Amino acid sequence: MELNRTTAELELEKAGRSNPGPWVDHSRYVAEACRRIAARCDHLSEEKAYLYGLLHDIGRYPGVTSERHLLDGYRLCKERGWDKAAQICISHAFVIKDISSSIGVFDMPDKDYKFMEQFIKDAVYDDYDRLIQLCDCLALPTGFCLLEKRLVDVALRYGTPPPTVPRWKKVLEIKDMFENKINGSIYDLLPGVIENTFYNNSYYALRKQ
Fold this sequence. Notes:
This protein is mainly alpha-helical. The protein is built from eleven helices and two strands; from the N terminus they run H-H-H-H-H-H-H-E-E-H-H-H-H.
């Protein structure tokens, strides 16, 4: 199956019907952030960046899971022949290429854990992997935000296990890398960052429902 905007958006819509939640809008904002930044990078395709961002969390379609959603997304994309999207379903969660850097729960059989452990070791990251890792930290379901707000949002939900600070440092390194590539601030490319970071509390109200 060809991966294009139509097939990717239909897949996300289907997944959203299967497991409704804020993750769907988050995925859309991640995709748009990826597209906008990629458009300023000569070596990246904004269309590919958009599609990979749209599908990075597609493994949430079966229901509420922790790290299992990474493998569910990988398998779904592999079945459709979307190999790079499949890799990003796993790689987006590992800015540090080590399964022990996870902050989630491995709610999967041991054989699946071992597969993912080896996959992460063997994966070769390129700037699409790094772009989705960055943009995953720039998007709430309500819009674009400062990276630090998203990092704290994740910490409030998952806690702050030992890998937390090294992960934050790595994301900041990726941010610096892309800002050097575009010769400017990534925030200049993301409309509504100020409003959504400082004034929009609708996401937190949603989480309390």
